[in-house]
Amino acid sequence: MQRPGQRQLVEERETMIRFNNVHKWFKDLHVLNGVSLQVQQGEVVVVCGPSGSGKSTLIRTVNQLESINEGEIWVDGKNVADPKTDLNALRAEVGFVFQHFNLYPHLSVLDNITLSPMKVKGMDRAAADKLAVTLLERVGLAHKKDAFPAMLSGGQQQRVAIARGLAMEPRVMLFDEPTSALDPEMIGEVLKVMKDLAESGMTMMVVTHEMGFAREVADRVVFVDHGQIIEEAHPEHFFTNPQHDRAKQFLRQLLTPMN
Amino acid sequence: MNYNWDWNVFFKSTGIGSEIYLDWFVSGLGWTIAVALVAWIVALGVGSVLGVMRTLPNKLLSGVATAYVELFRNVPLLVQLFIWYFMVPDYLPESAQVWFKQELNPATSAYISVVVCLALFTAARVCEQVRTGIQALPKGQSAAALAVGFTLPQMYRHVLLPQAFRIIIPPLTSEFLNIFKNSSVASLIGLMELLAQTKQTAEFTANMFEAFTLATLIYFVLNMSLMTFMSWVEKKVRIPGMMGGAK
Ligand SMILES: Nc1ncnc2c1ncn2[C@@H]1O[C@H](COP(=O)(O)OP(=O)(O)OP(=O)(O)O)[C@@H](O)[C@H]1O
Ligand SMILES: [Mg+2]
User: Fold this and answer.
1) Using the beta-carbon criterion (under 8 Å), do B140 and A150 form an inter-chain contact?
2) Measured between alpha carbons, how far is B35 from B40 in angstroms, rounded to an integer?
3) What Pfam families does its record include (chain B) (predicted)?
4) Model confidence over A226-246: pLDDT tens digits?
5) Count of structural domains, chain B
6) Could you tell me if B136 lies within 8 Å of chain A, comparing CB atoms?
7) Distance from the Cα of residue A170 to its chain's centroid
8) Do B239 and A168 touch (CB under 8 A)?
9) Is residue B14 situated within a structural domain?
10) What is the CATH number of the domain that holds B41?
């Protein structure tokens, strides 16, 4: 028996993100070619694929940092491409973590985190500070609240960036290669924070090539090539028994980058 | 050359009341500062708005700002001054014309013209600096601001402009100095600012070299003070931990 009770629970959960046959072009370049994908509430989906395959574009369409040309994307029951959708409100409940952190360099760590709750949600300074300190404790950086981004290591900056995303109390967190700009010794501290977040039940879509993270944390791996999802599988299946030649080739290259 | 330097000239009476020539310089400096400072504040405001407009996705707004810059940067300053002083008043509504040409004292109407002229001329230059500063920021900054749900105005106010202005303090400083130098055009429409008072002193006393030496010295000290002030500002707003920044 395969724990039928739990299975059903997963199916009954709300769909947080739904791509319906999404297309996007950059001029002549067909970057997203008929993408359909669903992410359930509480699910962690890892997106991987070769460089230039459209992973960043894909994840950036979720909060409309990139627009789409065809198809639909539903996030938390709202059609993001509908001009009537309040994009600012939508973005406020979707956290985004960038490869290069993109902290605000002119603000202290604390202010980086409190700025959006205060300005977007109208939270008062005291409540925002309290929230920020709680989040900084969660990512292990409470002692750095008065530091400025340029004084922090890459790993610390990325953890602050995660805290900044969480400060809006988002329903979904998106990560675009959150560890690929980091020195190897700092990758672990960021992945640890992400793993804790996943365990707390956060819905997450993560572009990453960290296979250890995918195996341990992801519910599903999605393999993208040339703007198409060509394989979607449980991580264990994907890594041990990929179906498509391009996925096999990609995994081979990931394991032996020198070849 | 046999020139008799006489530095006492500045303490001689002008023949008007108890006034000495030095008083003319002090009053000239006063006008220079009044012109340049007010024009600068307006230029900074108008230029910043235009600079932001040039970086907006809206084609109409950025087009308007671009046209403004092209117009005001390419017409010589003196021509602009004559337009503001001699031409524009003729196109004002009747009552405004009477007020500008007859009711205002001539110094005030010259002052208004030169402030408007310098402010709008310098705004075009400030606009370009602000635009450059915004465009120099990493793309990730606007993406990060949008991703948390900021509106466009919030993004500029809280994320882009505070960084852009820090970057452009050095070129803004030189525009700030330029507006003081450019304020000397006011002498051509009869406003008795520093240069006009210098010329007048030279004519009245025949001590031309002394007069211009003093004027040079005043402009120099003025420039040095402005530069010192601006580098104080730059230090004050420097981001901790950034290159060249003290902790
Ligand atoms: N703003 C843009 N304008 C034009 N082309 C773009 C733009 N952004 C991305 N592209 C192109 O679209 C394709 C997909 O880019 P994308 O960044 O989504 O790939 P990726 O899978 O994230 O790659 P990487 O692993 O290198 O980050 C690439 O060929 C890229 O050059
Ligand atoms: Mg990418």
Assistant:
1) no
2) 8
3) BPD_transp_1 (PF00528)
4) 999 999 999 999 999 999 999
5) 1
6) no
7) 12
8) no
9) no
10) 1.10.3720.10
